[in-house]
Amino acid sequence: MPGPSIPTALATLALCLTVLAVLALASAVVYRSSLARHPYTDCRRCKGTGQRRSRLFAHSFGYCPDCTGTGRRPRPGTRLLRVRHHLSQEAAPADEQVER
C-alpha cells in the first residue's frame, strides 16, 4: 500500500504552516494588547517596594538601582513592540489640578 502522493503531502504541510502562522500572529496581537494595558510589572530585585536594604546596616534603606525607586519595571516586549506608556502619565491628572 503506497503512502500519500507528493502533492497531497505538500498541501497538508502548507495547511499546517498556514495554521501555525495564523496562531503566531494571533498570539502576538493578544500579547501586544496585554502590553498596552499593563506595560509594567513589579521589580524582581526589590519585590515592588522600590527600596533595598543595606547589606552592611540592616536598618538602612536605599532606592533600588534596577527600578530607580519606582518598584516597577517594563515588561519584556514593551520596547520591541513600541508600547508608549510612562509612569509620569499616571501622575498627570494630579498635576493638572494645580491652581495658579
Q: Report, as a whole number of angstroms, the end-to-end distance.
A: 89 Å
Query: Which whole number gives the mean pLDDT?
Result: 78
Residues in helix, %: 40-55%
| Helix-strand makeup class | alpha+beta
Q: How are the strands of the largest sheet arranged?
A: 1-4
What is the CA-based Rg, rounded?
Answer: 24 Å
Number of H/I helices: 2
Beta-strand percent range: 5-15%
Residue runs with pLDDT of under 50 for 5 or more positions: 88-100
Number of strand elements: 4
Describe the largest sheet: 2 strands, antiparallel
Which descriptors would you attach to this protein?
100 residues, two-stranded antiparallel ribbon, two-stranded antiparallel sheet, 2 helices
Write the layout of secondary structure elements.
Blueprint: H1 6-37, E1 40-42, E2 51-53, E3 61-63, E4 72-74, H2 87-96
Antiparallel strand pairs: 1-4, 2-3
What does this structure look like?
There is one protein chain. The N and C termini lie far apart (89 Å). The protein has 100 residues and is α+β, with helices and mostly antiparallel strands. The protein is built from two helices and four strands, in the order αββββα. It is 42% helix and 12% strand. The strands form two sheets. Strands 1-4 form a two-stranded antiparallel sheet. The chain has a two-stranded antiparallel ribbon with strand order 2-3. The model is unreliable at 88-100 (pLDDT under 50).
